[in-house]
Amino acid sequence: MKRNEFLSKLGIGAALVCTGGVLHACGGGDDAGPSNNGGNNGNPVNFTFDASTDFPNIGSSKVKQGVIVVRTAATIVASSFVALDAICPHEQGSIMYDETNNRFECALHHSRYQLDGSVINGPVNSAGSTRALKKYNIAINGNVITITE
Ligand code: FES
């Protein structure tokens, strides 16, 4: 059993990601899903959100099918949103959006990632390394945001 699965069974994983003041990963959605294979446990990612109601503000985020989606700008266009893997490639920690620094950070060992998913720094006080987070396609039609692989 991996660390994330163990914490998840205890309910600790969710508690960890919900305590940060500026780190967002609990904006809603149906699950973070243990995924380290770029998507939803091998299933194709394909889902929608409503831009206005699901992402009312810059910095609003949602996690669904193992993907974290964040609104990073005011205008409702595809470039105002980012969709990346919600699970860290290192040891499956939850990825959160750091609104203050406009980047992503792992809750477990604090690897940090750019908005394009590239690595800023690897794990802190933990062996091993990480890799870039998978980036997903975003299409906007009116207020409907569609996320696909
Ligand atoms: S699990 Fe993300 S840095 Fe270790």
TrEMBL record:
Gene3D superfamilies: Rieske [2Fe-2S] iron-sulphur domain. Signal peptide: none annotated. GO terms for molecular function: 2 iron, 2 sulfur cluster binding; metal ion binding. Residues 47-147 form the Rieske domain. It comes from the Bacteria. Keywords: 2Fe-2S, Iron, Iron-sulfur, Metal-binding. The keyword Iron applies. This is Rieske.
